[in-house]
Amino acid sequence: MEIGLKWNIVGLKAETMVMTRNSNLLGKITILIVICCLGTVAIGSPYASNPNPPDGNTIDAAAFVNLRWYPGDYAVSHDIYFSTNFEDVNNNEPAAFKTNTTDTAELAYGLVRGQTYYWRINEVNEAHLDSPWYGDVWSFFVRPYKAFESNPPDGARHVSLEPLLEWNPGVGALVHYVYFGTDYDDVNTANTDSTEFRVYVGAPDSDWSPVHEGGLTLQPNSYYYWRIDETPDAVNIHKGDVWSFDTFLPLSGSGTKEDPWLIQSLDDFNDFAADANYWDDYTRLETDVNLAGRVYERAVIAPDVNDDEEYFQGTAFTGVFDGNYHKIANLTIDDGGAGNDYLGLFGSINDGEIRNLSIEGGSVSGDRFVGGLAGFNAAGASVSNCYSAGDVSGYYRVGGLVGGIVAGSVSDCCSTGDVSGTFHVGGLVGANDEESNVSNCCSTGDVNSVERVGGLVGFNMSDISKCYSTGNVSGDWEVGGLVGINVGSVSKCYSTGTVSGNWEVGGLVGANGDLDPGSISNCYSVGDLIGIYRVGGLVGWNYYGSASNCFSEGDVNGVERVGGLVGDNNPNSSISNCFWDTDTQTHGVDKGIGFNDGGIVTNVLGLPTSQLHRQSTFTDWDFINTWNIGENQTCPYLRVYLPSDINKDGIVNFLDLSITANQWMQEQLREQGI
Questions:
Q1: Is 292 inside any structural domain?
Q2: Could you give the CA distance from residue 264 to residue 261 in angstroms, rounded to a whole number?
Q3: Are residues 242 and 172 in the same domain?
Q4: Domain co-membership, 94 together with 161
Q5: Is residue 222 included in any domain, yes or no?
Q6: What is the pLDDT, as a whole number, of residue 492?
Q7: Under 8 Å between Cβ of 78 and 42
Q8: 161 shares a domain with 130
Q9: Between β-strands 175-181 and 197-202, what pairing exists: parallel, antiparallel or unpaired?
Q10: Phi first, then psi: what are they for 660, rounded to 5°?
Q11: Among 99, 78, 95, 79, which residue's Cα sits nearest to residue 87?
């Protein structure tokens, strides 16, 4: 016979403990415990239990309540915590401490109707090392005079067309006045002479059917509002809150990869944006959506809900949203100076995916993490084949498409709107943080900021490849035509816009490297630039980084530490196989590096334009896979496709070989006159 035993032994100082089990002839079990020790043995629970009022109950009394409980088995006294703030009680905050007592009951006075109260009992025994024993947090609700706890809950979605409206009655309610309609204001201001007044419901009933009892016909895709007033004596009437529900039908589909939710109208889009239950599934846009006439104060989808916290607070988008090559037009978000964060069509994307979507027209304005498409892209999230054309403004981490990326990616995307901000501001992405990637992207709008501003990315800590920017860039310091400050990798990129600033101003990158190194390879810049200190045609300040196989063409204008290629080259930095155009300089720049403070410089040359139009100038450059040139006509430019990618699909495979073979065969046939 198996027996399960559970022992809670407290205060045991045993050297030897022997337990035996024997059965007598009557089948009874005898348990003999022999304990050789110096100390005490106690068996039981150290925690307070059996609260009264019971946990979660609604009570009618308001003047006071007698809190009672069963004490823990080892308690000498009891610390009582009591408050309307759950966190204060849960964290044992001094503000919630009421008293220490040896009794197992305590009166709480001055209760407010309609309020939830939280309390806990921590059991104390100063002679015991494990004391105090923190009890569970219990709660009770004081019944108000007005109706409460509506069903359907306030704001319920997708309610049936034949709902039963239920509520919990207020104190002593004998009669319930039911108001129902399709307009909030009409229901809120209605009286018994109004058309929204429907019926008197007498106690003990507390429900009503607008269809079966009210004779109404509810319509799909509609909003409804209702209110319950109550009286205990036909004299004092307690007005209720206005509750709402809608009868919108759920989106078509099931939310799977094979059968995604379908957004087929503006109403569908509104439904999707308002219901977080859709945000971790697959969704596909089936039509263009025009948001003209609406001004949002927060992100439309997955908004941040607490701006007092530094990090995102809310439900992030974790699903897959396929724009299906449709557009969201006239998206306008303006926080009105309230300092709202994580703004964009999507507030935060966390391990989700947004693809094949355009944002056209409108504007987005806020504080931190502000983007035309998304405020924040993190934890494996990806944005691909998307486009944004609206203007974007903010304070910190502001981008034309995405405000900030951490461990995410943006690929095959472009933004064309103007972008402005203060810190970490980019034409496409404000900040490309650690373990992130931006590739095959572009930005064409003008960008303005104070610090760390770039035509494509303001702050780069990871990888940027095969990207370009063409907009003009202006700022105060760490200003770059492509990147403001780079502590990651920038490769196969270029910029063409005019760049202007004060300190660390570069045609491609304002500052390369900081506490971590930055690398630049196979890049070029052609825009003119103007600055004051550390001004370079390619890089303003090569602080802790490398630049290789790059060139600059722009006219450089600066005051101190000004170079046709690099303004200032620090120790632990290097520049190799790089060139700058001497013919375009109209402000007396005659040095490739304005000031070299011990950095490594290898094969850095200033040459006339004609020599920059010759492939032979660029020894050790890869003109098969990376670069191309119009001999004696153009400077080198980056290849979009490999020479062997015959059909220009971005892949070299047997299809390209087949095309080549077929072309060769056609030429052979022509030569033979066939």
A1: no
A2: 10
A3: yes
A4: no
A5: yes
A6: 97
A7: no
A8: no
A9: antiparallel
A10: -65, -45
A11: 95
Residue 301 tokens read as: 């989808």
Please tell me whether residues 178 and 229 are part of one structural domain. yes
Contacts of 241 (CB under 8 A, 6+ apart): 146, 147, 154, 227
Q: What is the CATH number of the domain that holds 223?
A: 2.60.40.10
pLDDT digits (tens, 9 = 90+) for 189-231: 999 999 999 999 999 999 999 999 999 999 988 999 999 999 9
Whether residue 392 contacts residue 368, with contact meaning beta carbons closer than 8 Å, is answered with no
Does residue 184 share a domain with residue 154?
Answer: yes
State the pTM of this model: 0.68
Number of domains in the chain: 4
Q: How many CA atoms lie within 13 A of 467 on its CB side?
A: 33
- Taking alpha carbons only, the member of 429, 423, 431 closest to residue 451 is 423
Rounded CA-CA distance 550/491 in Å is: 10
Of 142, 167, 193, which marks where a domain is finished?
Answer: 142
Q: Is residue 198 part of a domain?
A: yes
Where does residue 537 rank: exposed (0-12), middle (13-18), buried (19+ CB within 10 A)?
buried
Residue 98 backbone dihedrals phi, psi, to 5 degrees: -100, -50
Q: Are strands 368-371 and 396-399 parallel, antiparallel or unpaired?
A: parallel
A 10 A CB-CB count for 126 gives: 9
> Are β-strands 346-350 and 382-388 bridged in parallel, bridged antiparallel, or unpaired?
unpaired
Mean pLDDT along residues 340-353: 96
Residue % of the chain over a pLDDT of 90: 82
**Same domain, yes or no, for 242 and 162?**
yes
State the Cα–Cα distance between residues 432 and 222, nearest whole angstrom: 43
Average pLDDT, stretch 251-269?
Answer: 94
Say if residue 160 is in the same domain as residue 208: yes
Q: Which residues contact 564 (CB under 8 A, 6 or more apart)?
A: 536, 537, 552, 556, 580, 581, 582, 585, 589, 590, 591, 592, 606
- Domain containing 14: what range? 1-44
Count CA atoms within 13 Å of residue 452 on its CB side.
Answer: 24
What is the C-alpha separation between 125 and 657, in angstroms, rounded? 84
Is the pLDDT at 35 greater than 50? The verdict is no
Q: Measured between alpha carbons, how far is 64 from 642 in angstroms, rounded to an integer?
A: 82
With 60 as the cut, is the pLDDT of residue 34 above it?
A: no
Which residue has 């495979």 as its token pair? 653
240 and 152 within one domain:
yes
Question: Is residue 353 in some structural domain?
Answer: no
